[in-house]
């Protein structure tokens, strides 16, 4: 020590245990040497457990004769739970006194006992100069390297046991760990940022990774996220001395990249097995896994009847493009699958009558010429129908339709299932009518001059106790076919008359329309039943509208005309529904005792965008007004369409943009709030 003091050391700091006495003569000599030294002397103090199983700590201090001539500093090292030293204390409490740590004493840094700082293990231990005890004792060192330096004295031998695991350098002697900690503090007290902030940043990076839809973007995002964490950690330490634990954040970003990549790969493989490579359509396997549990669900197969002829014209390579074009023509209502070279399929949950109408219209659409690979082809399509999931049976039914030169054919088992369903449903419908289990909802018609609800259309609804909600298309055609239509229509009429009386009592003056089928239109018994219902009702016949279709009036024109004139004499207004879809002529319109004309939605919904539809709607409005008829446009779903109808002078508008069909109580509330146009339009369909 005398040699170090003579060389001009600023301080001499011991990491050597002086807590027990040695030879009294030698202890006295060391005390005398400490008292005579010009350099600041720092001796160690530390805490240790009383025994292996004890939680009691014993504080170790240098013997009294030594500590009178020196400062005391803590040499306690507290590894993390995994045994690795990452942080060092700025100070500790020993013998009830707060004392600086050895590294803080060496660096001249003040701090609060109990506070820690992260050690910069980027410092290479080899970069810290060192001398052996023998060299110093024998004077074999350059004194200029000692002048104004802080000297740490400690043991480095393995036998001494004072060794600790560190993150970068493996196991180091305690005195070297203390030296690295002192070097860290010489650059300022680092801020321990912890792991939470990097973990949150990693979570944000993981969210960005999982938002990526392609493998390349996932890899790029996870790589950039990891690089950003590294860069931010370096910048935080360089600029603010903040030391963060970024491992958890890095693992989260990289793990999310690996997981997302695996998920995308799995999805690609999963999708690849379920996609027809030629057409890009889902294949038979995808159809097999599709949900066919809906009410009335059946499998429809569309077979290209002239497949071989078309293939010889356009070539085998273009068949996929042909099938894709055919699927596109079917529209987006159902998912269309390619189940073999010449067949497309889908699952339909329409009622049988609606399904047949759809297939007939679809065949006409699909027969329109297509241009494939620069060549014009004319597809011929037939359809097969079978139970949901019975794809092979549906294909066989399509082959039967082709062999019999029919548009469609239903597989026998499906026919039997359909018959059983219909018989069961009709029995339940009869009970529902008798027990008043049906409901009537009302879809408003907006007066475009006053922006108030002027009339409503009564629509029957059936929420079956076991089958759930049933679409009207699934039971109204059956009711008409099975002689239940009269009872059901009378139920709707009586409920409508009752609700009209309640609305009028609440000060709401609206009219209500009831749909009358072709069979009922020419039925004398139904005519008498309508008269009887009006006699016992508090509602005037002038508040009632009967909506009839063109097809209903054309089935038996003479009988239909007599019935309509009879209803007109009662005071009921007659409205011609779905105008434009039949074969009406000017003479026919002039002959019928009409008060209202409803333009079919197929002409209205795109009239604000399609010039042809716009011309048809405009001319129909002018024609109807010339004949003294009110005009109702149905199928309004946008404000642009409504504005167009105002411009062309249409009287009434009906559609989801005005309102969906509502129960009587909700309709009353809507009418009460529709005193202005803004109130009405605020209740658009969700």
UniProtKB/TrEMBL annotation:
Residues 422-675 form the EAL domain. PROSITE patterns: EAL. This is EAL domain-containing protein (Putative c-di-GMP-specific phosphodiesterase class I)/CHASE2 domain-containing sensor protein/GGDEF domain-containing protein. The keyword Plastid does not apply. InterPro entries: CHASE2, Cyclic-di-GMP_PDE-like, EAL_dom, EAL_sf, Rev_trsase/Diguanyl_cyclase. The chain crosses the membrane at residues 192-211, 218-240, 246-266. Keywords: Membrane, Transmembrane, Transmembrane helix. It holds the Pfam family EAL.
């Amino acid at each position: 020590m005398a040699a170090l003091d003579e060389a001009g050391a600023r301080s001499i700091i011991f990491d050597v245990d002086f807590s027990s006495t040695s030879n009294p003569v030698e202890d006295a000599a060391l005390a005398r040497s400490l008292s005579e030294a010009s350099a600041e002397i720092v001796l160690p103090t530390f805490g240790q457990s009383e025994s292996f199983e004890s939680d009691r700590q014993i504080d170790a201090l240098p013997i009294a004769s030594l500590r009178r001539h020196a400062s005391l500093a803590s040499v306690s090292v507290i590894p993390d739970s995994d045994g690795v030293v990452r942080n060092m204390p700025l100070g500790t409490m020993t013998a009830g006194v707060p004392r600086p740590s050895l590294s803080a004493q060496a660096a001249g840094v003040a701090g609060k006992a109990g506070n820690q700082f992260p050690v910069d293990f980027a410092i290479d231990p080899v970069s810290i100069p060192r001398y052996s005890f023998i060299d110093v004792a024998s004077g074999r060192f350059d004194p200029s390297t000692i002048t104004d330096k802080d000297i740490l004295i400690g043991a480095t031998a393995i036998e001494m046991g004072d060794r600790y695991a560190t993150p970068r350098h493996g196991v180091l002697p305690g005195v070297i760990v203390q030296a690295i900690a002192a070097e860290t503090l010489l650059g300022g007290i680092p801020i321990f940022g912890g792991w939470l902030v990097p973990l949150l940043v990693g979570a944000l990076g993981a969210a960005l990774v999982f938002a990526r839809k392609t493998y390349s973007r996932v890899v790029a995002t996870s790589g950039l996220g990891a690089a950003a964490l590294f860069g931010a950690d370096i910048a935080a330490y360089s600029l603010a001395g903040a030391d963060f634990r970024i491992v958890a954040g890095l693992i989260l970003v990289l793990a999310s990249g690996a997981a997302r990549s695996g998920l995308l790969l799995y999805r690609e493989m999963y999708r690849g097995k379920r996609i027809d490579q030629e057409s890009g359509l889902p294949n038979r396997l995808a159809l097999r896994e599709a949900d066919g549990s809906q009410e009335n669900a059946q499998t429809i197969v569309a077979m290209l009847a002239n497949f071989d002829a078309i293939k010889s014209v356009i070539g085998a390579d273009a068949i996929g493009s042909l099938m894709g074009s055919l699927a596109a023509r079917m529209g987006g209502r159902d998912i269309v699958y390619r189940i073999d070279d010449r067949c497309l399929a889908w699952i339909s949950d329409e009622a049988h009558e609606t399904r047949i109408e759809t297939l007939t219209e679809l065949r006409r659409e699909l027969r329109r010429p297509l241009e494939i690979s620069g060549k014009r082809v004319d597809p011929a399509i037939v359809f097969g129908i079978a139970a949901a999931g019975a794809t092979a049976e549906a294909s066989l039914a399509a082959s039967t339709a082709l062999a019999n030169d029919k548009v469609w054919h239903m597989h026998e088992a499906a026919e039997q299932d359909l018959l059983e369903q219909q018989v069961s449903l009709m029995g339940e419908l009869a009970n529902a009518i008798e027990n008043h289990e049906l409901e009537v909802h009302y879809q408003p018609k907006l007066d475009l001059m006053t922006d108030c609800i002027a009339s409503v259309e009564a629509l029957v609804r059936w929420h079956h106790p076991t089958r759930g909600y049933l679409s009207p298309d699934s039971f109204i055609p059956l009711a008409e076919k099975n002689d239940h239509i009269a009872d059901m229509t009378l139920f709707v009429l009586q409920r409508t008359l009752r609700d009209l009386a309640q609305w009028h009592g609440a000060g709401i003056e609206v009219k209500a329309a009831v749909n009358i089928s072709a069979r009922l239109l020419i039925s004398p018994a139904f005519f008498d039943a309508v008269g009887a219902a009006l006699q016992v009702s508090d509602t005037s016949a002038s508040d009632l509208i009967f909506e009839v279709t063109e097809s209903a009036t054309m089935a038996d024109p003479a009988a239909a005309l007599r019935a309509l004139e009879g209803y007109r004499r009662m005071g009921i207004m007659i409205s011609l529904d779905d105008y434009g879809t039949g074969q009406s002529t000017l003479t026919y319109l002039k002959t019928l005792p009409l008060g209202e004309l409803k333009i079919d939605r197929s002409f209205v919904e795109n009239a604000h965008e399609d010039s042809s539809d716009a011309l048809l709607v405009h001319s129909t409005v002018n024609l109807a007004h010339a004949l003294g008829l009110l005009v109702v446009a149905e199928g309004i779903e946008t404000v642009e369409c409504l504005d167009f109808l105002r411009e062309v002078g249409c009287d009434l508008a009906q559609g989801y943009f005005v309102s969906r069909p509502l129960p009587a109580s909700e309709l009353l509330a809507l009418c009460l709030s529709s005193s202005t146009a803004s109130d009405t339009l605020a209740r658009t369909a969700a």
